[in-house]
Structures are given as C-alpha cells and as structure tokens.
Amino acid sequence: MHTGLSGDVYFHLAAGRWMLAHHSVIRRDMFSYTVRGRPWIADEWGYEVALAWLVRALGPVSFWLVSAGSCSVALLLSAASWRRIGATGLWIAALACVATSGLLVGLAPRPQDPSYALFAGELLLLRCARRDRRWLLALPPLLLVWANIHGSFLLGLAVLLLEILWSCLATSHAVRQVAPALPTRAVVASTAGSALATFVNPHGPALLGYALHVASSGRIAALVEEWQPPDFHTPLLLLLVAGPVAWLLVTLGRSRAALHLGDVTLAVLLLLATLQAVRFLPYFVLAWCAAASRWSPRRPEGISSSRLSLPLAACLAAGLVIGGHIPPGAPLRGGAAVDMPVGPASFLLHRRGRVFTTYWWGDYLVDLGVPVFVDGRTDLYAGTGVLATYLAVADLTVDPDTVLARYRVRWVLWDEHSALSTFLAEDPRWRAVLRSGDAVVFEHLAR
C-alpha cells in the first residue's frame, strides 16, 4: 500500500483490456513498432483478462487484491496444510512469519502471485491425498487453471513427477519409513490427467514447449533481473536462504523428528533453483515450511488461544492497514530512475512520432497506447535482434543516431543521469524539451 505500480503490470493490463474489448486471445504483437505483428504466445492471458476485468469492475484496489490477496491465500492454504500434519499453533505462527517474508520478495500485481497460491494448494492437496486418494482428482483442474495463468505450471508438474518417484521407491521398507507415498497407479493417473489438462489453453500443447523454452533460455535469463541469482547483500534474502538451510541441517543432524524425505527433497531442489534465479525464492520458502511443519518443539506449548486472540489480531491488522498510503493503482513515484515518468509520458501521449525509451518505462507507455521500441515482454523480442540493438544504444556501444534514424525515432525518453542522455544533450541533432524528476525528453530536430 506504500508502493506504486511499475513494470510488467502495465503491459499485462493493456493486453487484458484488449482481450476483453475484442473477446479474443491476443496472438500477435500490437504494442511495439519494432516487431509489430510478430506472433506472440500470451501464456499469461488468463491472469491478464482477470486483472483487466477486476480493475474495470472493482477499480484500482484490484491491484492490491491480486497481489496481497493471492499471497494471503497462499499463506492460508499453507497453514491448513501444516495444521493437517499436526503442527501446533505457535509453530504454525513461526512458519507463517517465514512464509510471509518469502512471499514479500515476490509481492507485486503480477501472475507470479496467483501461482504461489496454486503451488500452496497443490502441496495441500497432495498432503490430503495421503489420507484420502480422492483428493488427487482436484489436481487436473488446478493445473488447468495454473497453465492459463503463469508458466510456473511446469513446477506443478515437476512436483507430481517427484511424487511418482517416491511412489515407485516406496516398495522398499526403508524408504516407506521416511517418505510415505501415494499408490503408484493413482499418482500416475493424476499426473497424466494434470499434464493433459495443461493442454486446455488457447495455444494447445505448444504452450508446454514455449514455457520450457522461456524457463531455459540463457538470453532471457541474462536480461531479466528476477532470473538472476539472489543478491546476498540484501539481508532479507540472505536470511531466507541461509536460515532454512541451517535449520534443516541441524534438524536432520540432531533432532529425532521424522521429516518427510519427499518434502525435504523438494525444498532442496527449489533451493538450487533459487540460487540460479531469485524468482524461485517464494516457492522455496513455502516448500521449506511444508517440510519443517512435521517438526515439533520438545516441550508442549504453554500458550493457547483465548477469546482475546481474534480481537487482538483484528486490532493488529487494522493498525497495519489504517494510516497513510498511496492511492491504489498510482504509478511508482519518487524521483528514482525506476519510477514511472508520469509527466513526460503524458507529454508524449499528445505528440506524433516514435518514442525510444527504457525497457522499464516501455510497459507504462504501452498501457497509455504509445508504441514502443521494447518493453517487458522479453520473450517476444528474444531472437529478433531488437534487444541487442536496444542494449547497444543504451550502453553507447554503437552510434545512437544511426540506430534511431533507422527506426525513425523522433522522441527519446530516458534517465537524465545516464550515458545516453549525456550524449544526446551534446548532440546538435537533439534538444531536451522536458525534464521531470530523473526523466528527460529529447526531440530530434529534423523529424
């Protein structure tokens, strides 16, 4: 409630509005002038339509609902899973604090947040299925929804493949002691049904190959920050990775707690994924909490809930919510280069001519209806040479005038404290016509 909108949310909103207006799934680019008309697999179309519809029906508060609301659902589903395994109240509260910290890392009105809730729901269903296998019937519908919201449905399928592995190994008595498994036939049937359910989308089976390509593309990983390894100079990230690992090592080494081998393996695999890309951190934290929920303190809890518990919780929640905050749906502001250039964008909205702007600001212009050189849809531009050209201009490894002339660019909206802005400020073919915060608008004098 204290952070404005920025980045990808704007092209998601623009795509959702287009699909609602045309009653059709968007299949080609229509937001850029560099790859306009190029086939585009909008794999997150379900989220985009839902976001646009909610904003139209409920207003800008919907941005908070799809982010904080989705993460809250993920937390509640996780707590239900921990409770089902027998975790006590105070331990659930401690795990909730850890899970919340992990979810905060990914908190934004983007399709990742609903995927956290779907991941937590899958873990809950599998835990319930160990007592009643009929819960497996709910997995194909869950994966169907997941595949139409976010490409992380691949993680959901990977979790089911892991369940198949444990069910096959459970023929050994030693394995059954540390990894009680589901019946092999039941989990194989559920996994097959779930895999087929992911084909029920506007793109059919091609979506699976597309999601695998995006997840394994080194070019995309090199350009998108969330695909980078975590920055351990950030104390929260260091604590969320090192803390669970240290606890797990101590628990396995000294405690008599019978942790589920499947839960521990999933947490370790997601830890390895997190060390490669920080976007997996919320999934890792949820998986670690699922594994840790089987542990219990040596002494019974001396504190129990009372009639004051809910009123106190309500007062705490009200204290966190009530107070100063920015209006819902407001762009990120404050003067930093990552903030949205509201004034300059409004200026360009009423001017003719192509605009060259930053990768981050391109999304904001897309939502306003201004065609851009590049924006946050990295997968769309990958392999076209557009991203490489954009980076070359931004880094001044090529003559900007040559590239900007080739694309008939009239306006450049850029961070004032950058090499490109310094270059254009000294270039007689360009002049600065507007400055606002850290943003500056240059106009080409001949176009």
Task: Describe what this molecule looks like in 3D.
By secondary structure, the protein is mainly alpha-helical. The chain has 2 domains: 66-292, no CATH class; 342-444, no CATH class. The protein contains 21 helices and 4 strands. Strand 3 (430-436) and strand 4 (439-444) form a beta hairpin. Helix 3 (62-84) packs parallel to helix 5 (112-129), helix 4 packs antiparallel against helix 14 and helix 5 packs parallel to helix 14 (281-292). The longest helix is centred in the first third of the chain and has 23 residues, at 62-84.
SSE layout and pairings?
Elements: H1 9-22, H2 45-58, H3 62-84, H4 89-105, H5 112-129, H6 139-147, H7 153-169, H8 173-178, H9 184-197, H10 206-216, H11 218-223, H12 235-254, H13 261-276, H14 281-292, H15 309-321, H16 342-349, E1 354-357, H17 359-368, H18 378-381, H19 386-394, H20 400-406, E2 409-415, H21 419-426, E3 430-436, E4 439-444
Mean pLDDT: 89
Q: What string gives the helices and strands in order? A: HHHHHHHHHHHHHHHHEHHHHEHEE
Shape: globular
Broad structural category = mainly alpha
Radius of gyration: 24 Å
- Into how many domains do the coordinates divide? 2
Helix content: 55-70%
Kindly, what is the distance between the CA atoms of the first and last residues, rounded to a whole number of angstroms?
Answer: 42 Å
Number of strands: 4
Spans of at least 5 consecutive residues whose pLDDT stays below 50 are: none
Q: Strand content of the residues, in percent?
A: 5-15%
Question: Can you list the strand order of the major beta sheet?
Answer: 1-2-4-3
